[in-house]
Every structure is written in C-alpha cells, then in structure tokens.
Design goal:
Elements (H helix, E strand, L loop, with lengths): L13 H8 L12 E4 L10 H5 L59 E3 L8 E5 L1 H9 L5 E4 L2 E4 L4 E2 L5 E4 L4 E4 L6 E8 L2 E6 L2 E3 L12 E8 L2 E6 L2 E3 L4 E6 L10 E6 L2 E3 L4 E5 L2 E7 L2 E5 L6 E5 L8 E7 L2 E5 L2 E6 L9 E8 L2 E2 L7 E4 L8 E8 L2 E2 L4 E3 L7 E5 L2 E2 L1
InterPro entries: Pectin_lyas_fold, Pectin_lyase_fold/virulence
Organism: Caballeronia glathei
Protein name: Pectate lyase superfamily protein domain-containing protein
C-alpha cells in the first residue's frame, strides 16, 4: 500500500499518475489462449515521485496509539456478568434423570446469547462499545447475536479465541463521530478459531474530522489463525474494509487459515481489502466497489510491508471489482525482497473488473537487488476492461501467468 507507514504527500490526481506509471501489455488484447509472463520486466518508466512517496505498509493500523486494543472499561460494565445461566444452555439438554456419564465426553451444546442481555441498547444513538465488548468477553464458546443498530467509538472491539459472533438481519455497527486517522472497528489479533457471521460495519467516514491518516479499518486481522468470516459488509471506512497482516505482538507470527466469503466493500477510502502478510488466506466471491479517496484506492492490494511478510497460498476466487480508482487488483512487492528468501503463491480465478479507472490488474515493484523472491502469481479466466500492467518487475522474480483473459 502506498503511503502506509507515514502520511506522506498524497497524490489526488490518480488518473494522471496511473497513466504515467502504467505500461499496459497490449499483447493481452488478443484475448483467449494463455499468456505466460515470466517476470519479463517492466522497464524503468515508473514515476520516481510516486515511488518515493510509497510507505512500507500499514503496520501502524493494527496498534492504535490510543491503546484501543485493551479497553479496560470495556471488559466489565456494571451487571455485564449477570447472564451466567444463559451461558450454559447445555444443561437444558442433559436433565438429571438421564445420568448418562457418556455425555461428559461430548462438548456442551452451543447456546445463543443476545447482545441485549449484556446491556447493549442497539438504538442507533447510544455508544454501545463497552457493552458490546462485555458481550464478546462473556459469550466465548457460545454464539453472540448482535440484534440492533449499535454505535461505537473509535476504540473498536476485540474478538477472542473461540468467539462466535453473528449479526441478525438488519443489525449493524456504525462509528460515532470521531477524529481518528487510525482505528479498527473489529480486531482479530492473535486469536484462534473465530467465526464472524454477516457483520455489517459502517466506518462513518463522513463523520471523521481527521484530515490525515489512512488506517481506519472495518475488520483488522493480525496474527490470527483458523478464522471464518461470512458475508461481511464494510462501508465508508477511512482506510480498508478488511486488513490482513502479521501479529503486532508476537514476532514471526502471521495470519493463517483465514477464509472470507461474500465480502462486500464499498466507499472505503484506501482499499476494499489489503493483504500484507498471511498463509492460507482465501476470499470467495467478494465485491469490492467504489473505492478511493487516498492512495492506492484499489479493490484488493496485496502488498507486503517488508521482508518479514509471508505470501503463501493466497487464493482469490471469483472477485468482482468496480469503480476502484487505483485499480481493481494490485500486487505490489516493492518492499518484500530482503535477506530471507521468499516464495510467493497467489492464485486469482474468475476476476471480473467492471470498470476501474486505475486498471483491472496491476503487478508492480519487485526489485531483488541480489535477494531471492520466487514462486507464482496466476490469474485464470479474468474478464477485464483493461489489459494487465506489469511494471518494474525483476525477471528473476515470481512468474506471472494469465490464462484465457477476455479484455474489453
């Protein structure tokens, strides 16, 4: 992601800059068939001003300076621990008369706890952040049902290992007015076995009085493992709809086995999704649209911060991008090469770009300088409005293969 670590000079004329940077591979215009781009190199025509202003990823995004990841007040609002009986619904299915010792070896039945039982108002006005955090903390191992239209402050919410949060139809969380260049509405930080169903998150960018920053995230995933997110909606965030990166707390810990299905991102300033680092990251059937407001402005940006990142078994299945100002999908590896050899495996299939001013599919920035980055980047059966762009790509880097493209 350009400009990630520090709010360097912003370039607002995306269209003009994109024309300068991109050298479209017109050989794709023929369509059909298979094109193997064996890291053929994009020449030296990149805009040096643009390259100089690219930061090294969004590491600051996952650790807001206000200490949002440990809100002490959030974990114990008055009366929040009261619904103890509700957290053990399994007793209803094991009456004393059964006296069946075998039941002890079975996991307890999963109950559904209402957010309102923890004091969540969900009235569209009240700051429910503390009550929602108490509900999350008090429902581990159960299903927490979000039922209303909650508002929260920019401190955000932390999911826990074994959290299972479900949003009822029509339920949502929207940020209250704020002044924050950095926030994470929902965090999955160093957690395992999390399920998040149908979250509907509104970052309220129109209510943000900040004038800088680009790290306001709908869902932030840092060093998490074995997590499933289904049908998330992330709109109007100051930065990204969903952000995936290494742990901020544990050196060498990266996000693993993360599956996101049917994601809809719209109106996000920076990206629909950023994948900075991860292994076994899967997005199925996403729609990323109307993205723009700060660089890069892409539907999906796969962009490591540095040589500590991992990009292995990244699968993007049937994505649709539309009106993404900086481009539909961008893979930028300008900060990836370093002393540790890296192997990349990124597979994109069925990408449809309806219209994105910055291009449909752009692969850029790899300069090895004697280091090793190998592997494969593939795009199968894409339908693009514009040919792909391969720019400033070291010929010894990963092969880039496009099969059966349809252009126009």
């Amino acid at each position: 992601m350009f400009f990630n670590n520090a709010p360097a000079k912003q370039l607002n004329n995306y269209g003009e800059e994109s024309v300068i940077r991109r050298k479209l591979l017109t050989s794709l215009l023929a369509g059909g068939g298979a094109l193997l781009l064996a890291a053929c190199g994009g020449g030296g025509g990149a805009d040096p001003e643009s390259a100089a202003n690219r930061g090294k990823g969004g590491k600051g995004a996952s650790a807001p300076a206000d200490g949002a990841s440990t809100p002490a007040a959030a974990s114990a609002p008055a009366g929040a621990s009261a619904p103890a009986a509700a957290s053990t619904p399994a007793t209803a299915s094991t009456p004393a008369a059964d006296n069946a010792p075998a039941a002890a070896s079975e996991p307890p039945a999963t109950g559904v706890l209402l957010d309102t039982s923890f004091g969540v108002k969900g009235d569209g006005t009240t700051n429910d952040r503390a009550a929602l955090q108490a509900a999350i903390d008090g429902s581990i191992g159960q299903i927490l049902l979000i039922t209303g239209t909650s508002r929260i402050d920019a401190t955000g919410l932390d999911l826990r290992t074994n959290s299972h949060v479900r949003f009822a139809p029509g339920a949502s969380i929207k940020l209250l007015p704020h002044n924050a260049g950095t926030y994470e509405m929902i965090r999955l930080a160093d957690v395992d076995n999390v399920t998040l169903e149908s979250p509907n998150l509104d970052g309220s960018k129109e209510l943000n009085s900040a004038t800088t920053g680009q790290w306001g995230m709908g869902i932030s995933i840092n060093g998490a493992t074995n997590c499933t997110i289904t049908s998330p909606t992330t709109i109007n965030t100051w930065g990204d709809g969903i952000y995936v990166n290494n742990s901020d707390r544990k050196t060498g810990s990266y996000s693993t086995n993360i599956t996101v299905s049917d994601h809809h991102a719209s109106g996000c300033r920076r990206q629909g999704v950023s994948i900075i680092s991860g292994k076994g990251i899967v997005f199925n059937n996403p729609l990323w649209e109307n993205i723009g407001g700060t660089e890069p402005g892409c539907g999906l940006d796969i962009e490591p911060n540095d040589n500590t990142a991992v990009l292995e078994n990244i699968q993007i299945v049937n994505p649709t991008t539309n009106n993404c100002k900086g481009g539909g999908i961008l893979i930028y590896l300008g900060f990836f090469a370093g002393p540790v050899a890296k192997t990349v495996s990124i597979a994109i299939s069925g990408h449809t770009d309806l219209t994105s001013p910055g291009g449909s599919f752009n692969v850029q920035g790899l300069k090895l300088n004697g280091n090793v980055v190998n592997g494969t980047i593939t795009s199968a059966n894409p339908v693009w409005k514009q040919p792909m762009s391969l720019e400033d790509w070291d010929k010894a880097g990963p092969t880039v293969t496009v099969t059966n493209p349809k252009i126009g």
